[in-house]
Design a protein that fits this description.
Length: about 450
């Protein structure tokens, strides 16, 4: 193991050095992948020298998601204390279903969950769990909503047409989860959004009323705290009033931007969050832990047990159920994803998490101000968002993003809202500085200027 760790340290050291010189890895076209890197698996073992060489090639040619040139997805950066926690969880290799298998690591997850519930404003009857991604936490919320509406559903299946409501700008996992849960894709109602990207509350209530008249069963509303394109927050207070009126489970999908709960300056964006039935956020997004670390919390922990608890005498043999987390998780065996969040939180405190969140909004302001002060740009997004959407010189956004990627200059994506397609710059890497944001625009402008024939 010590020798293997030496190889690891050597490769990581080389990666860190390479990131300084080459913040974007050289693009490897799909049709050249297997010729560029030897990914083949053979019958006989290879030498350690060849093994190490292949690993280095693989690592150095993989997309660099922690540098100041990565703005493509809703994660980025590298927090050293969080990385430490992730490395330790790999070495310990605890599975989080029982206290017998995970010991004090169970306490780590419970403390994180309890503190999140406290930040939200919930009491001791709340609880939650950690899952591998936002799609999974949204799925768990839908299952709990289904079972809360009909307690016989887990035993007898769905007997009525349950209906799920979500905005047209919500995450793509909603219809998938409706299929997985037995509710069905066709029983998802897509509610339009206003000019800012927020769900239309009047249309929502009207649709619920129409479904009730048809004898259907309104079951869950999926609200969004940070839509994937514009980074917009639905009006939780208004939505909670509607959901309470019609007995509809309210889930707030904060996978992207739900971490604003830690910010005094920006928590107003999810005013009323304490009124929801369930809430999820990804610590691997705004908080900056390594992938993956998604949390779902519920106001009433009874729903976790009702939907996910199942006895297994070969597994749950010791200790109280409260410390056997397999009773409140969709999964059985699962890695300890809470540890990396805990090591970060423990090291910087809640005040440190607040600074991480606030930094991203500061960087977004830098980007928006740059765009507003340059007539070559058109801004499509709004204040109080870490998604900055724009176009440059009316050049198609898809073309710019694709060529920047293929020429190994920047990794940035594009999106749409209404009839507009635009570049979507996300400022989610809190390790970036103001200069890195300005540098992004300069790289983009210089690339287009010196490659006019491509545009």
């Amino acid at each position: 193991m010590n020798n293997t760790l030496s190889i690891f340290n050597e490769i990581v050291s080389e990666l860190l050095q390479d990131e300084k010189i080459n913040p974007v890895s050289k693009h490897v076209p799909v049709d050249e992948l297997y010729e560029t890197i030897d990914l083949s698996l053979q019958e006989k073992p290879i030498s350690e020298t060849e093994f190490k060489s292949t690993l280095k090639s693989l690592v150095l040619k993989s997309p660099k998601t922690a540098t100041n040139a990565f703005f493509n997805q809703l994660f980025g950066g590298r927090n050293d204390k969080a990385v430490l926690g992730d490395l330790l969880s790999v070495m310990l290799n605890n599975s989080m279903y029982t206290y017998k298998a995970a010991g004090p690591q169970i306490g780590v997850e419970k403390v994180v969950i309890d503190k999140v519930c406290e930040v939200i404003g919930w009491g001791q009857n709340s609880n939650g769990t950690v899952a591998p991604g936002g799609s999974m936490t949204n799925f768990m919320a839908m299952l709990m909503a289904r079972d809360a509406k009909n307690s016989r559903a887990p035993f007898e299946g769905i007997q009525h047409n349950m209906i799920i409501y979500t905005s047209t700008d919500s995450h793509y996992s909603v219809p998938k989860n409706a299929a997985f849960s037995g509710i069905g894709r066709n029983n998802v109602r897509y509610i339009s959004v206003d000019s800012y990207g927020k769900i239309n509350t009047e249309e929502l209530e009207k649709t619920i009323q129409e479904d009730i008249k048809k004898g259907l069963v309104p079951t869950m509303l999926n609200a969004t705290a940070g839509t994937t394109v514009l980074g917009v927050f639905d009006d939780i207070i208004a939505l909670s009033t509607i959901c309470e009126k019609y007995n509809v489970w309210l889930h707030a999908d904060g996978a992207y931007c739900g971490s604003v709960i830690f910010s005094t300056n920006y928590k107003f964006l999810i005013n009323g969050i304490e009124k929801v039935d369930s809430f999820s956020f990804n610590a691997h997004k705004m908080i900056g832990t390594p992938l993956s670390c998604s949390l779902i919390v519920v106001k009433d922990k009874e729903h976790l047990y009702n939907s996910f608890s199942n006895d297994a005498s070969y597994l749950y043999q010791t200790d109280h159920d409260e410390f056997n987390l397999g009773k409140t998780s969709l999964q059985c065996g699962r890695r300890n994803d809470a540890l990396k969040f805990w090591t970060l939180w423990k090291s910087v405190g809640t005040e440190g998490l607040e600074k991480i969140v606030d930094k991203q909004f500061e960087l977004a302001d830098v980007a928006r101000n740059y765009i507003k002060n340059n007539s070559d740009y058109t801004l499509y997004s709004f204040e109080n968002s870490i998604s900055v959407c724009f176009n440059y010189k009316d050049i198609p956004a898809k073309k710019i993003c694709t060529l920047l990627y293929e020429n190994s200059k920047l990794l940035v994506g594009y999106g749409t809202f209404g009839d507009n397609e635009f570049i979507r710059l996300v400022t989610i890497n809190a390790q970036n500085k103001k200069e890195d944001i300005i540098g992004f625009f300069k790289v983009l402008e210089d690339f287009i200027e010196y490659n006019k024939e491509l545009f």
